[in-house]
Write a structure and sequence with these properties.
This protein is an alpha/beta fold. The longest helix has 21 residues, at 146-166. The protein has helices at residues 11-23, 33-40, 58-61, 64-74, 92-96, 98-113, 129-138, 146-166, 185-194, and strands spanning 4-8, 53-54, 81-85, 117-120, 142-143. The chain is built from 9 helices and 5 strands; from the N terminus they run βααβααβααβαβαα.
């Protein structure tokens, strides 16, 4: 199912992600009422249960908002894939602090969501060895390519899957190997043309 759910701690990132999803031809469906009701029970009173889902800055004080909201969000039958935006911490100090705890809570939410999920960075950034160890600990699939390129990659993956489902035409058989190699420029150009290689005509 190639309908995408988007989650972030920032309403601005949610809007950016929705715009890029539209540009990539990826559907971001409206949540059904049961999922919206379940999210109302989890989010702060000022939160709004939508897709994209802004878990609000309340997650800065209570990182478990991710672990509690992602399963309720992923339970919506209209969603086939969930992308959550959060930069991966770079240093052991960050990982030991609240930034690492947020990623761990996202991992817990992914595992309980019942959907394939990926965490994407907001801006393109490298992955350090400390960050890689955190990904291995949490089992999170991560793209450090930023919002635009990450959503674009998801869109291209969805399009590829659709082509696979429709059935791609079989590749043409390879030409038989030549028994005699051509000699001279004219003969070489004729040989290449006979095998479908574009050439520049000789004067």
């Amino acid at each position: 199912d190639r309908r995408l759910g988007l989650v972030s701690i920032s309403g601005g990132v949610c809007e950016m992600a929705a715009d890029h999803a539209e540009a990539a031809g990826v559907a971001v469906p409206r949540l059904a009422e049961p999922a919206r009701e379940a999210l109302r029970a989890v989010l702060p009173a000022f939160g709004t249960p939508n897709n994209p889902l802004d878990v609000t800055g309340g997650a800065m004080l209570d990182a478990s908002l991710f672990a509690r909201s992602l399963p309720a969000f992923g339970a919506d039958p209209s969603l086939g894939f969930v992308a959550c935006f959060m930069d991966l911490p770079d240093t052991a100090e960050d990982i030991a602090g609240y930034r690492g705890e947020i990623v761990r809570q996202i991992g817990a939410g992914f595992r309980a969501s019942g959907r394939p999920c990926v965490m994407l960075s907001v801006m393109a950034r490298p992955v350090t060895e400390a960050g890689r160890a955190l990904l291995e600990e949490t089992g999170i699939a991560y793209l450090g390519s930023g919002v635009q390129h990450g959503i674009g990659a998801i869109g291209r993956a969805f399009a590829w899957a659709e082509r696979q489902e429709r059935g791609m035409p079989a590749a043409p058989p390879a030409p038989a190997p030549a028994t005699l190699l051509p000699s001279g420029e004219r003969a070489t150009l004729a040989y290449l043309a006979s095998r479908g290689v574009p050439t520049v005509p000789m004067a």
